[in-house]
Structures are given as structure tokens and as C-alpha cells.
Design a protein that fits this description.
Elements (H helix, E strand, L loop, with lengths): L2 E3 L4 E8 L5 E2 L4 E2 L4 E8 L5 E5 L4 E6 L2 E9 L1 E4 L4 E8 L6 E6 L2 H5 L3 E6 L2
Length: 120
């Protein structure tokens, strides 16, 4: 997950869902209180229902459509074949490790999960 911080203080990260059914994440450590943007790109031929434990997030984009009124969600579908989804959330849950995964049990068993870690 490549990470950048914009002038508004919102940190952005990208997560690739590769054909191996694994999440590609380079930087999953965030600071408590941070506002985080996560962008998924799905290069597989299957849709994936992605979930971050302990958080509600705003779904601000899916399949290239940006929403004027983001949807508050705890799971969102990332479309297949290059589909995208973009979340925004506040890192306001207790410090620790939070699981991020596909809600398909077979995909989780195959490694389509990672964690988001709060340092403080």
C-alpha cells in the first residue's frame, strides 16, 4: 500500500487485489486520529466484498463513480476486472491491530487479508 499525505492532512493508500487472491499492502501502520483514504483496485475476475473490522467507512467511489453523498458502510464490493472502490475512514478505534479482509471465507483462507495497525 503506497502512502501519501495530502495538503488537507488526509493520508491516502492504495491496495491491489491481485490474481493470487492476496492483498498487496506496503504500509499498513497508521496513527490514531488520522483520516485515511483507501483505494482498492481489483485485477481478478471475481468481485470481492472487503471489510475492515472495528470501523465504519465512507464509500466515496466505486467502479469510477464518485458519490456526492458518500455511503456509510462496513463492507463494500470491489468490482472484478480492474474495478475500484475508495474508502475514507477516521482512525478513531482503540489502538491495536484491525483485520482487513475479503468476506469470502475461501479468499480469506487463501490469504486475502491483512491488518491495519494503529501505533497510538
Amino acid at each position: 500500500m503506497g502512502s501519501t499525505t495530502g495538503s488537507n492532512g488526509v493520508r491516502g493508500s492504495a491496495i491491489a487485489i491481485a490474481a493470487s487472491s492476496k492483498l498487496s499492502v506496503d504500509d499498513n501502520v497508521i496513527d490514531g486520529g488520522e483520516r485515511v483514504v483507501v483505494r482498492f483496485k481489483n485485477t481478478t475476475e471475481m468481485e470481492h466484498a472487503m471489510h475492515l473490522h472495528g470501523h465504519a467507512f465512507s464509500l466515496v467511489e466505486t467502479a469510477g463513480t464518485w458519490f456526492a453523498r458518500p455511503l456509510l458502510k462496513d463492507v463494500s464490493l470491489v468490482p472484478a476486472n480492474g474495478g475500484t472502490a475508495t474508502w475514507q475512514f477516521s482512525a478513531d478505534s482503540p489502538a491495536g491491530r484491525w483485520l482487513l479482509h475479503c468476506h469470502n471465507d475461501i479468499h480469506m483462507a487463501d490469504g486475502m487479508m491483512t491488518e491495519v495497525v494503529y501505533e497510538s
